[in-house]
Design goal:
Elements lengths: L9 E16 L5 E20 L5 E3 L12 H13 L5 E6 L10 H16 L6 H9 L5 H6 L3 E5 L3 E4 L6 E5 L7 H5 L26 H7 L1 H13 L4 E2 L6 E5 L2 H8 L8 E5 L11
Parallel strand pairs: 3-4
Antiparallel strand pairs: 1-2, 2-4, 2-5, 5-6, 7-9, 7-10, 8-9
Length: 282
């Protein structure tokens, strides 16, 4: 993949959880999950510029997020520490994915930083090493480093790759920010779904255990989901919300439902990807 270089625009695609079951909880409080991650062709974009020093500078800070806590900066610094690299970089982030939307935007950005700078700095860490760094940044980061549509288990670090049929997804974005910690910390969250074997899972199987909690606490999520279910019964929430989605075998079917969306409802269509665009980079 020598065509990826310092002048490239590096994609950080969103994910959808095609189901999400909470099957238990560890003694340390971490939840044990089962889910299928699917990448879609809606993405943030990052660009990188080399520096003459070893500093990591985010040229496009997100309002209200200090640079030292931004996942992109933290990812770059952790890569420096893990590899002993003394190079720096200026990061430019074109943020298109909503925060608190359940699409994995922050995790996707962090993973793309790890993949891009590992390549640009020639630090030569393998995917497994990068996934371990990613897990220290958040439970969803490793899957974006892994780069394959996959059945994930544990706290998000055990993968069984899956082949998924082509699909188009209509995504509705309620204008609320759903904090993941609040959903997982809810006393009424179902935490005892029966575990299933990755080999037994089929597309369309399963539900999202976080959905009832998010709908109860954020009426806008419930309203958007109810509207979408009335047109596409297979609709569900992704991640811990706020976005809800429905998958369709043909894009024209998604477009037909999109055309019925009430005025002011934020909605868009994305196609499923066979793999992450950076799946083969070294």
């Amino acid at each position: 993949m020598s065509d990826w270089n310092w002048h490239s625009a590096w994609p950080a695609p969103a994910k959808l959880n095609l189901f999400l079951h909470v099957v238990g909880r560890r003694a340390d409080g971490y939840h044990l999950l089962q889910t299928v991650f699917r990448f879609i062709d809606r993405a943030d974009t990052l660009r990188f510029a080399p520096r003459d020093d070893d500093q990591i500078v985010l040229a496009t800070p997100i309002p209200g997020v200090p640079a030292d806590t931004d996942l992109t900066v933290r990812a770059a610094r952790l890569l420096q520490q893990a590899s002993g690299c003394r190079q720096g970089a200026t990061i430019h982030l074109d943020k298109q994915l909503p925060m608190g939307g359940g699409l994995g935007g922050g995790s996707a950005d962090a993973a793309t930083v790890l993949l891009a700078l590992n390549h640009l700095w020639q630090t030569n860490l393998d995917r497994t090493a990068l996934e371990k760094i990613g897990l220290g940044l958040g439970a969803d980061v490793p899957v974006f480093v892994h780069g394959r549509n996959t059945f994930a288990e544990g706290v998000g670090e055990a993968f069984t790759d899956v082949e998924l049929p082509p699909a188009s997804y209509l995504v509705l974005h309620p204008e609320v920010h759903v904090p993941t910690a609040a959903i997982f910390g809810a006393t009424d969250l179902k935490r005892d779904s029966a575990a299933i074997s990755p080999a037994d899972w089929q597309p369309g199987q399963g539900h999202n255990d976080l959905e009832p909690v998010a709908c109860a606490r954020f009426p806008a999520v419930a309203e958007h989901l109810a509207w979408l279910k009335s047109h596409a019964p297979q609709a569900m929430m992704t991640g811990s919300g706020a976005c809800v989605f429905a998958g369709f075998a043909r894009r024209s079917e998604a477009e037909a439902v999109l055309a019925r969306c009430p005025p002011g409802m934020r909605a868009w269509i994305a196609d499923g990807l066979a793999e992450h665009p950076l799946a083969k980079i070294r």
